[in-house]
Amino acid sequence: METITIKDIARALNLSTSTVSRALRNSYEINNETKKLVLEYAEKMNYRPNPIALSLRDSKSKSIGVIIPEIANNFFSQLINGIESIAYNMGYHVVIFQSHESYEREVANTNYLVSRKVDGLLVSLSSLTRDLTHFEELLDKGMPIVFIDRVPKNIDTHKIVVDNFFGSYQATEHLIKTGRRRIAHLTSPFYLSITMERLAGYRQALEDNGIPFDESYVKYCHHGGMMLTENETAVQELLNLPEPPDAIFTASDRLTTSCMSVLIQKNVKIPEEMALVGFTNTSVAELFNPPLTTVVQPAIDMGHQATELLIRLIEHPKKPTIFETRSLQTSLIIRDSTVEKSVNA
């Protein structure tokens, strides 16, 4: 089976090889109509760039490193799908590492990827990362880095997030409208960006509806849901309160499933005795018993946009003066775990 080259594409479309090359790299110098023509023909002819030739020509590895807390999390697995689809189509390979919510592993992963000469990094911070020196030093040396979801506040680079405040506000307000007044929040370490934003949305929704914020209804799981015993202890502490909550809003996939597991073990009826909303992208939420109300993030689109921004940094190495923080919208999907309280009375 013959391998098609850039020269073959240029000849077939009556274009110069440099035009075809730039179109395949999604260069801003080429108009959208020409890009579309080249990309469609390249896909039709099953064109794939030669990574060795590209590396020799550009002194680049044509690979990007991805560091996430864990692949088993549905949100992150969908995020990777989005990353890989864009990277593959633009001629890049993806190398994936998991921090498992460990700062030390995150640093080790970063150092290894840099030693293997990846062209850039896509990063979602571990729940235990508070020292950002390893990323700050790389950025100072010109390494392209884009942060996704869990992002540092004081580092200047591109970031892709969701509107965590709105998603959390919407979930909490929904619980209030179903008749719940003692709403707890099970979340990650307080210093993570997503924790602060989701907590702020939860708190604002309570205050806007005349419900005082009560710190005893907020539980922080410092390993971001990775330690089952920590999650179970947090839920049990909520159940042991003098006035236990009548609803729980959880801030991640693992926290959601752990919370539901404990409630089932303790024979707490959902939603009659406890309504439950999860900030989760699990694909089987409708198969839970009862089906779970969820706040869903556009994970695949986040992966798409983060990868496009990273490759733009890689291929246009002149440091930009303005960085983007793109905030995408979440969506609330209402299911039986939050049926209106009066219906069950």
Automatic annotation (TrEMBL):
Record keywords, A-Z: DNA-binding, Transcription, Transcription regulation
Name used for this protein in its record: Transcriptional regulator, LacI family
Domain HTH lacI-type: 4-58
A Pfam family assignment: LacI
GO molecular function (one): DNA-binding transcription factor activity
